[in-house]
Amino acid sequence: MTTMDKKAEDLRVVGTRPVRPDGADKVTGRARFGDDIHLNNMLHGKMLRSPHAHAVIKSIDTSKAEAMPGVRAVICGKDFPVIEHKMVAQGEAGLADMRDISDNCMAKDKVLYDGHAVAAVAADNPHVAEEAVKLIEVEYELLPPLMNVRASMADDAPQVHEHSFPGAFIAPTEAHIANASRIHMANGDIEKGFAEADHIVEREFNTETYHQGYIESHITTVDWDSNDNLTLWTSTQGQFEIRDNLADVLEIPIGNVKVIPMEVGGAFGGKDRIYLDPVAALLSKKAAQPVKMAMRRDEVIRATGPSPGAHIKVKMGVKADGTIIAADYHLAYEAGAYAGGPIFLGVVSSTSRYNIPNLQVNGFDVIVNKPKTRPYRAPGAPQALFAVEQVIDELASLIDMDPVDFRIKNLTRSGDILLPGFPLAPLDTEALLQSVKAHPHYTAPLEGENRGRGVSYTMWFNLGAITSARLSVNPDGTVHMSSSNPDMSGTRMTLAMQAAEALGIDVAEFSANVPDSDSIGFAMPTVGSRTTYSTGIVVIEAAAEVLAEMSKRAAMIWEVEPDSVSVADGVFSSGDKSITFKELAHRMLDTGGPITVHKTGSPQSFIPAVAAHIVDVEVDVETGKVEILRYTAFQDVGKAVHPDYVEGQIQGSVVQGIGMALNEEYFYDDEGRLKNASLLDYRMPTSLDVPMIEAVILESPNPAHPYGVRGCGEISIIPPASALANAIHDAVGVRMDSMPMSPHKVCAAINNKS
Amino acid sequence: MIRVHIPAPMRGYCEGKDVVEANGDNIRQLILALDCSYPGMKDALMDQDLLKPDVAIAVDGHITPLGLLQGLSEVSEVSFFPAIGGG
To answer: Does the ipTM exceed 0.85?
Structure first.
């Protein structure tokens, strides 16, 4: 096959800014989301949720609910199949026990967090279902809740699970720790390293639980038909993950489940796991009617996966010449009610961007009585960076070195061995930080009282993993593209642009969709900054096969050898003969029939990307409010397929990073009940809270992709918290050891200093 | 000989070494060879005849989707580490 690699200067479609085809439908309400499904005889399901954070279920009486007119089905935990321990690789989410996933959808013997589902009702309309739920009587025996990692890891802490697996990470946990699994990674000689240091900084940090905050809640509609085939319409990042999890939990064949992915109204990592789906399925089976279930906002916040709170200890040593000689990190992350949070990603992201010869990281995945954590845009990284990048800033200050120069001196560069034991793939890490230094923002005067500037630098990785796509040439020369990954950020366009580039035709000739799980090959979900990069490679490979087949057709028409046919910019040539893509497509049916290529691949993982942010703030020392004056985000994206989309990804990531940095947190009372499960009380940033965010795109090509593309969807959520913390220190001289840095904490820090 | 980078949690099996050497035409054979020299390696990486689902493998710097079936050359470099993801 002809190589499909192209240099940046040869790209014709990639790098342009076509108008987004799904934009108008989304803003006018024509696009079909999960809540737009209305089926004949469809019932509405509602859930009863636990008001307790930790309790044994002594009994459940559903008789009054079942007797209510209009109620068609009631289920509780005993209606689920009994799942034995079954460890399944969940791709981006690591390893999971299907029994835990089932229990998280509906509690069986114990409730493990405020909001844990206990029973469900399907009725003729949602109002009847809500009233019927109130008639279900549950008797609980309360247990003490464990609400943070230190409480859960205490020597005298009760064990939350009797069955939880210890030592989830390659080797057995070295010592028993209550409710926790441990990962330990190290290089060099940590004691020797600290002995050689001229300065050592040691600090401790805490971060709180926060949520992805997608606007569309979890919504699913399930029809379990009389042949035991299930059809689901749902809002998800991965139709195959939902299909496979559902089949495992309900113990039915995968072939009986079809998942139709709807438009996604925000996900950010939080929609790749089943919640309502098996509940609606069992209700549908029992009632013999389709059932729709939709979470209210308070259910989303109480019972779907947030990002973990954490307790982090950082110790770093530096030599007088600016070399970081040793680092020792302790990262304890909440897993939520079941094991398996993003601790390994926290470990990797805390270490990968600096080349530290003597390094030790102890990571702990800790069970607490909160909802099971789920990935949230660069999961596990913002917490680690909040801690480490503040200490980096402090070390630079101690040796009187410019903070960006300090980072450049200690950079991980291509070929350096990363902590997991393999080399960093090609990436110009220094170019990014040099661009920070050269940008006018970095040296702009910052006048006025209580104003400060902070920087932060991070590295993150793209997932490759299994993915699928199909290209079908139509007789009029248009092309239909199907891709296996739900479109959360415009990927139908970015994939079509790559296919158009490869085929040498205009992207306006494309239509694109994301088919159901029966209608395209398997793929891992839309996660890990992977779709434009990973599925893009598969789309380009499919385009190469389309061109090869069309070349054969041209050779047939011209009665020449196929090898004599060349193709460039959508024109096939052999000698003095030529024919355009469109003209050849017209001949498709009389030269051998339709041309359709389905391609599956598994592109490389661990493709690196880097980002650095500069932020200016003004701190109100009376109220503790932090106002952001200016924000510039630098990100290396390899090659920006659609620069508008890339800027949107960067800006959206920064805004979410600002939210977790300054405002967002779960407030639990002493009994473990969540007190702010609404968007009034769970304070996400609005347009009034953030200034214009300048996005600076750098393009250091990724050699693993034909056009040099790197994923861009996650990384810029990582630096804001640490950049803001460093800016606050520059403004008022206090180190913030707790995230979010809400006004009362900033005030307390200022008062403690004085 | 194939160079194998040993993650910290597994160094207890191989006298604390962070890099060891072994032979094998594919990852399965390599793990079995490692287990002969350093007993316990197989149980750390495999569940009966399958690679544990939380283990990722890089060969010459590239994560392989082939697991135990990934072919190796005499000069390959292999790393074992926990599987990764994103959001």
So the answer is: no
